[in-house]
Every structure is written in C-alpha cells, then in structure tokens.
C-alpha cells in the first residue's frame, strides 16, 4: 500500500509515523509513506500558499493551485483515492480504517488556516474524514491518526495478522479487560478463568466481558453490533445485575 500526505508540516507527520509499531512496519515495507510539502509547489518566490477568502470572514484560506500542483506531481498517471481531513467529514471509525486499508493508493490532504479553496476539493477529493465534532489548527494530527489506524489493519504491522480483531470496535464492541503479571497486585487478583488454561472458558469470558464493557461504557454500540442468541442472553443477565445492583460494575 502507498500513502502520500500533502501538508504544510511534513516534519510533524514524519516524526510520529516513523516511530513505534507503525514506524517499524513502514521500515519493513508493509506500506510506503511519503510526506510532501505543499509550499514546494507554490508559484511565487515567497512560497505563499494562502490568501484572503472572497467573503467577510476573517483569516486566510489555502489556495487551490499549490495543492493541485502537488497532487499532479505526486500522483502522476495514477489515480489515488484522495481523502481530505476536515471537520465537515464523516467521523472516523474502525470500519473506515479497515475499508481504507484495502486501497492500494491513498493521498491524504491536510488543510490549514481557515480551510481550503473549495474548487480544488471538488476536483480531486473522493472523501472527507473527521476525527469528531471539533476543530483543530490543521489536518496533520487527524492525518497521523488516520494512517496509524489504517496501518494497524495491514498484514505484517502487528505481531499476528489477526491481533487487531480482538481490539475495541473491530466487531462493534469494546475490548475485554486484560491483565499481566503479577497474579495479585495491591490485593487485586487476575480473574481465575484466565489462569485456568481452559481455552473455551476463556473465550466465553472474553465475550461476556466485551458485552459487559460495551453495556457499561458505550451502550449505543449494542444497537448496531452483530449479536447472537448467546450474546443476548449474556446482555439480559448483565442488565438484570445492573437493575438489582446499580453499582455492581463500578
């Protein structure tokens, strides 16, 4: 997979995406990533990429031409899938990361200032993506988050190709609690089932705990999660415990 990021601050993206698990995956060739300075494609000696908008709004707007020239130089004869990081876009989730991980060629555009001239967005952008209902200074942090989320979905990034499938949101539910050594810490013990070595019981416990965590913390996710009869029986049990003992899970 190839990912290109067009930004005014390529060094910010490079710093994060060269570190830790994602950095190792990149170094190992799991995916190819290049960050491009939009100013390099400005058409005046001052490398200017912004101008005042045609409106009464204060602030500066990124011009279309430098972005267009950057896109043409990077894409060449290819047609990458273009994502613009924007607070007007659909909110990023795990399924979107999985969907985009299937793309072979991704071009991510980071806005700045008061935004980007709409004409270049209309010309090249396939999709707008947001981290949530809030505004950041620029698109660099959202772009880094997006690449991190996508990279984790690629075979070879994590220790096992299915490691991400146990994580929160992959199947619409939150992840079950996890524990490590020591067996007892400050009087709190690891659940006995995890010490039993009984795989079927451990899998049942994990599923129950995923449902419990989701019920407690993000109950709205249960409305769209794929649940079977056993799951619904678990949820009935969890709900009954909560009704009878409201602070049982605190």
From TrEMBL:
The keyword S-adenosyl-L-methionine applies. It catalyses: guanosine(37) in tRNA + S-adenosyl-L-methionine = N(1)-methylguanosine(37) in tRNA + S-adenosyl-L-homocysteine + H(+). Transmembrane segments: none annotated. One of its GO terms (molecular function) is tRNA (guanine(37)-N1)-methyltransferase activity. Pfam families: tRNA_m1G_MT (PF01746). Its main location: cytoplasm. One of its GO terms (cellular component) is cytosol. S-adenosyl-L-methionine binds at residues 111, 131-136. SUPFAM superfamilies: alpha/beta knot (SSF75217). Gene3D superfamilies: 3.40.1280.10, tRNA(m1g37)methyltransferase, domain 2. It comes from the Bacteria. One of its GO terms (biological process) is tRNA N1-guanine methylation. Its EC number is 2.1.1.228. It is found in: Cytoplasm. Residues 1-223 form the tRNA methyltransferase TRMD/TRM10-type domain. CDD domains: TrmD-like. Keywords: Cytoplasm, Methyltransferase, S-adenosyl-L-methionine, Transferase, tRNA processing. Specifically methylates guanosine-37 in various tRNAs. Belongs to the RNA methyltransferase TrmD family. Homodimer. This is tRNA (guanine-N(1)-)-methyltransferase. The lineage of its organism: Bacteria, Bacillati, Bacillota, Clostridia, Eubacteriales.
